[in-house]
Amino acid sequence: MKYEFDWVDAFTDRVFGGNGCAVVHDGADLSDETCLAYVRETSLVECTFTGPSQIADFKVKYYLASREIPFAGHPTIATVAALRHRGLVGEGPLRLETGAGVVEVTVTGEQIAMTQIAPEFGQKVPAEVVAAVGGISPGAIVAAPQVVSTGLPFCITVLKDRAALDALRLDLDALEAYNRLLGQPSNDMMEPFWVTLNGATEAGDTFARLLLAPPSPPEDPFTGSATGAMASYLWAHGLIDKPRFTAEQGHGMGRPGRAEVEVLGPRNAITGVRVAGQGRVVMSGDVFMPEPE
Prior knowledge:
The protein has helices at 32-42, 73-85, 127-134, 162-166, 172-182, 224-236, and strands at residues 2-10, 19-24, 47-51, 58-63, 68-69, 92-98, 101-108, 111-116, 120-124, 146-149, 153-159, 193-196, 206-211, 219-220, 244-249, 257-264, 272-277, 279-288. The protein is of the alpha+beta class.
């Protein structure tokens, strides 16, 4: 079976920046096995597969190399950019059916803004447990790490400076201990999301990293879902002065990414998070898949 695809760099205004995602059009009926094999074939962190929806404009399925996940940020930006590239959507509002519910998207010029769902604040994790995952000292962590989800859960971990962020090295044994503490199978919980309250450039307010375990690539260039969770955490805990800010990620990988972020609602009653960025189509073509069962 032949499917059309677009390879899109998301959260960037130029190709070869931000985070790549291959969008397979009308591929939502493909088997999990085929979708996982496709992600591994691309060597990307995530890919999406679109299809018709009875409750939204399009259905979107999200896959890592290891499993399907309910939602992801940069693939949402990439998917909408791909739909626009093919003339399937224009400017204005758009609704996407995801495993985390219907995601509202607005396209304005080249900017694609998604509104992530209201955050769920989960378990707080001892600093020493999270620090071990990144191979750093617990003293480098300046606020209590906490699991937060705006569609996909991450343990938001605030570091004191860029040096601590640069020093991170993923320890797989410590990651297993971290997952056991959270009571999660190793393939159900995302790795910690590390952030410092200074941008990578003068334009940024935060700078973050996400180190990934195999079979994913070692690091994610830009993580839109975690950015929403991180923004909720920072606003709720009074670590940022204003609900609008610029988030940066990927600069240390040579793939700089940027998002404009707005937390919606007061600190004690957040209703959602708007995360906006651009996407650039790098290549388009056909992919040949096994027929759906």
